[in-house]
Amino acid sequence: MEKKKQRMFYNEYFWRGLSIFFGIFVIALTIIIGAFLIYKGSDTFLKFRHTLWEFLGSAEWDPVDSAEGGGKTGALIFIAGSLAVCGLALVIAAPFALCSAIFMTEIAPKFGEKIYRPVVEIFAGIPSVVYGWVGLTVLVPAIKTVFHRQVGHSVLAAGLVLAVMIFPTITSVSADALAAVPTEYRDAAYGLGSTRWQAIWRVMIPASSSGIITGVILGLARAFGEALAVAMVIGQTTALPKSIFSTTKTLTTEIAAQMGNAMEGGELKAALWTMALLLFLISLFFITLIHQLSGKGKKGEK
């Protein structure tokens, strides 16, 4: 009996110590990645003497692939391309995802959980290269034909591909948020004479708004980090997007295209590291925003 208690005691402390170790390891790894990106990305400003305004506000992108520097490192084209593509994807995906979540939890919950949710989750598991290939072979020619364009590669094509890719993320998180609303809210709405749509629109959606917004932010973060599928359909032109039919580049597509060929210690590679740092900071911003919204949601429940 005494040996059994000792074994239980050691097991408890072992697993607790293991959990603490991996928790600290993840935190330390995140800090190390952030510090490394700051170290590499700061060369654009400290070594090659470019200003923050030049990097963020200039569209002149012509960095020199050498340690001497002297080129232009304006990343506005890629920032604008990322914002245009991700914004368009969000505008397309968010309404469909919210309607799908409502259907899954409120309209047909049994069908939604057993059939519809697994189908939606399949989309999340499809590799990005498949989305890109379908977009390249089906969507790009369709845009060219329907809108009578010279090329189908465009912000529109990239936005549609990204919309399909972030759709399952927003749908799943929004459905979980709706399902987490206490049944008393729904029953009270029906007891006051509300129709099903009034209960959904006036009660369920406001009560789960923080979770829905969290799903939207997670989908947006996924869109900002996508490179391969976007690169296959966006056209890869170093120019500011003027319309949804423009060809352009994003932060991730430029990093993926140039990082492997850039000289170590050169101005081009330093500028690419700075763009990677910018993406890291955008991710941190999204994570902080999610925690803020989650905290407000918990306070509202209390």
Fraction of residues in β-strands = under 5%
Mean pLDDT: 89
The geometry reads as globular
| Count of individual helical segments | 13
Using the CA coordinates, give the radius of gyration.
Answer: 24 Å
What is the helix content? over 70%
* Strand arrangement in the largest pleated sheet: 1-2
Largest sheet: 2 strands, antiparallel
User: What is the H/E string?
Assistant: HHHEEHHHHHHHHHH
Distance between the terminal alpha carbons, to the nearest Å?
Answer: 45 Å
Low-pLDDT residue spans: none
Instruction: Give the oligomeric state.
Output: single chain
- Give the total of beta strands: 2
Name the structural class: mainly alpha
Index terms:
globular; 2 strands; 1% strand; 13 helices; mainly alpha; two-stranded antiparallel ribbon; 302 residues
Quick overview of this protein structure:
With 302 residues, the protein is an all-alpha fold. 76% of the residues lie in helices and 1% in strands.
Structure notes:
The protein is mainly α and 302 residues long. Helix content is 76%, strand content 1%. The chain has helices spanning 2-41, 43-46, 52-57, 76-107, 109-125, 128-146, 155-179, 183-191, 196-207, 209-225, 228-233, 251-258, 267-301, and strands spanning 61-62, 72-73. A two-stranded antiparallel sheet has the order 1-2. Helix 7 runs antiparallel to helix 10 (209-225). The chain starts with a helix and ends with a helix. The mean pLDDT is 89.
